[in-house]
Amino acid sequence: MSVSKPISDLDALIASMQPELQPGVYVFASLPHDAVFGGAGVVATFREREGMTVVMEEGAARAAGIEPLFRAAWITLTVHSDLNAVGLTAAFAHALGCANIICNVLAAAYHDHIFVPVDDAGRAMDALSDLQRRAGMLAASPKP
């Protein structure tokens, strides 16, 4: 598998973040630590003191009788972001906040993943694309 070099420069990250809306609906849920559940449809897990947080496909959660805490659309920023980069999360969270869209974020080894309310997916994509477009225009403008 060929992997691109991670980008850490904030301007370059924003200008090349390329948001991509993943198909489907996803849910956040909390399960007891000793819960037995299959990996079918699971996107992410995180162990907290209170329980095991799972992010999974809504259909798989429904089939397993798992009660959702939050229904979401999943947006992946396809740029290979460096885990040591500073400011990307703040930049896209600010853009979404200005559009009055909440977001839950998971940073993985290669990409950032943003979960927004299902009904706000289109507006979130517009806000992120606008942020990227503005950053690209700034990067292309001549420097004094």
Structural overview:
The protein has 144 residues and is of the alpha+beta class. The chain has a single domain, classed as VC0802-like. 30% of the residues lie in helices and 28% in strands. Strands 1, 2, 3, 4, 5, 6 and 7 form a 7-stranded antiparallel β-sheet that branches. β6 and β7 form a beta hairpin. α3 crosses α4. The longest helix has 20 residues. The radius of gyration is 17 Å and the shape is globular. The termini are far apart. The model has no long low-confidence stretch (mean pLDDT 92).
List the helices and strands and how they pair.
Elements: H1 10-15, E1 19-21, E2 26-31, E3 42-48, E4 51-57, H2 58-63, E5 70-77, H3 88-98, E6 104-107, E7 112-117, H4 121-140
Output the helix-strand order: HEEEEHEHEEH
Enumerate how many helices there are, as a single number.
Answer: 4
Proportion of β residues? 25-35%
How many angstroms does the end-to-end distance come to? 41 Å
Largest sheet: 7 strands, antiparallel
> How much helicity do the residues have?
25-40%
Look at the structure and name the CATH superfamily: VC0802-like
Radius of gyration: 17 Å
At CATH level 2, the architecture is 2-Layer Sandwich
Count of structural domains:
1
CATH class: Alpha Beta
- Structural class call reads alpha+beta
The low-confidence runs, each spanning 5 or more residues with pLDDT under 50, are none
What sort of overall outline do the alpha carbons produce when their principal axes are compared?
globular
Mean pLDDT: 92
CATH topology type: VC0802-like
Overall strand count: 7
